[in-house]
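Hi team,

Filling in the usual template for the complex we talked about on Friday. All components are listed, including any nucleic acid strands or ligand strings, so the model treats them as one assembly.

SUBMITTER: L.P.
PURPOSE: interface mapping
COMPONENTS: two
RESIDUES: 710
SEQUENCES:
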Amino acid sequence: MSDFDAIDALLADVGPQAELPPPDVRRELREQARLSKAQVARALGVSPSTVGAWEGGRDPSDEIRAKYAYLLDGLAAKFPTEPAPEAPPSEDEDEAGDESESEAGDEAGDEVESLVAPEACVLCGAPATHRVAGFAQHLDPSDCRPATATGTQPAGTQPAGAQPKTKSTGPAPETAPHSAQRPRSPAKRAFQEQSGPADLIGQTVQAALAEHRGDVEATLAALLKRAIPDAMRLLDETRKGARYDIVAHPWIPDILRKQTSKGADRIWEARPKWTRHELPPGRHEVTALDINGAYLSALKTHLPLGQLEHSAGFAHDRRRAGVHLITPPAWEHEAVLPNPIGNRDEPGPLWVTEPTLRLLLRLSGPKHALCEPPEIHESYTSGATENLLEKFRVALKEARDTAIAADDEVTLEYVKAMYSKFVSTMGESNYNRELYRPDWMHIIRSQAFSNLWMKALKAHDEGLTVVRAMGTDELHVIGDWHRVFPEGRGVTEVKMKDIYTAGVDAADAVDDTGDMSGEEE
Amino acid sequence: MPERTIDFGKFGARGIKGSDAVARKLDELSGGIVTPVTVKRGLMARLHYLTKTEHSRRAARDAGLTVTDRTLKAWLDERRSPTKANLERIEAAYRQVRRQNVARHLLRRLNADGGTRVEIHPLNQSQVPRPLQRMVEYRTMNVRRWDRIVEAWASGDHQGLDDAWEDTIVDLGSQWGQYEYVTNIGFAA
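RESULT (copied from the run log):
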């Protein structure tokens, strides 16, 4: 920690409020830099919706305002004037051969502004009162303290021809597309490098490709074979220095044990399997949507940490998670929305997991008021956290995003195998003996189903007609879904699988029974 | 504090002996035939396992399956079916032979890479009166050498396994006596 951080903060406090560009420019700048709201929000330490509000006209204040202004200044300096990626001047001592350095030298001829409130110099981190081409810095090199070595971890050190064969694997996460354009200042980095093992996946893929001399199919086969141990290794890496230990072999209550070797246990995962009974009259174009990486997103869920403890009673403790014996409420919206409990044949109480229970409690709440609250009879729970697999999930998600951006099928398949096999073998599987948590397996699956259910509800609320909700990731809707769900391959987006027509024309409704004729073409 | 529990369960604590939990876990890890011996499929699988080679016949005989070859053949050909007592003998012999056969492999995996991390889940005190409950935490430890434990387990030596396990958990520190009885012991191999 430099002592100047504190001074900087103090100076920023007493100085006048930083100037911000008008709201639409803020948004434009961010989009030009291809930064998501979430990325900006993470760097500034606020929530993405706050960033959205700033772009919608609200103004931040105080320290956050200064940070935001600093970010926007940096972006403004970059994008309108220079289309080519430009390296900050701090790097030109270290990397003499890089072609992007040629512009750095004559930047002193650019506009020089003096700053009222000193900002951290991009070269040394000490307060500087001048800004050159958007970067605060000392005009006289002798003012710069020579502590530059720390901040100049190069973004583009890999020579252009370093990976002749492995082009399809995409860059490792530290050479992610936008990282080459970041201004790097040692004192106040707008974007922190992700701490953690983000590049573990990239390195593994690179090594495997090198081993198989670029043979994509052989590499993929080898990687899929080792997906489970690799996922466990990644999990270990992501839990380094974490608050909670992963308890891998707790005592398991009988309800979570398989009844026979091939049989199932007694947990109901509430898998949706619902098709609308009657379509609205007329012929409709139905779109089959596919939710991307459903199990990957479901890794963010309330997972019980330790051994499950038994309790009986009606109260639900939000700080605990586990499995619960409940009597589900009656569902009266079967005609338009699937039952959140899945399609169950027998009535009566059943064991459900935390996500299902939370979904039911949420739906019974005042906001939705779709059903009665469920009746909880007994529970096996333990203290829970949503963050247990969070770093693991983020590492996988980032590898996935990078692979999609680079069109890198090998990494994509590998990441997919890692998370899906991790989930399916974390119970009593002989393929993964490191982790015996059938409770987690059920909870993660239920979370995926519950996420799908919420998407169905969102579609319904936005005026689409939900036709089918099936499995973990299949949602069929009628209507203009583009205004509800963004299309794409990211985990927050949906993919269009199929379009088909269903229903009957009003004319021949008499002889046709109204079943979905054109389905599954 | 006495190091060994004298009268376990006097105040309502529940759990099993640590060495039993270890044996159970080792049995789980060693895998084998899942179908019970009372079912024809399970019986046949066990008989085949015990009579496949001359070596396995000898091991079965050593493990207490002291019936004549003629009887074995009759069982295999389904001309006769074993009595209840013999079914138990077959099961016991199968268990022991199986343990001996996998012991070497299991030991190598457990000792590999500097040993295996063991989770010790403490005994269940939910039925103990509140003033008598004690703070017993979940503990983990790394066990480097499994030789004595696996050897005792493979030869069905309860006392030997108990002694070996007790010598291991002494490494937990002065509190080790609290972990003589546990709800579960978990490790992977």
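MY TAKE: The two ends of chain A are 62 Å apart (CA to CA). Chain A has a mean pLDDT of 78.

Thanks, L.
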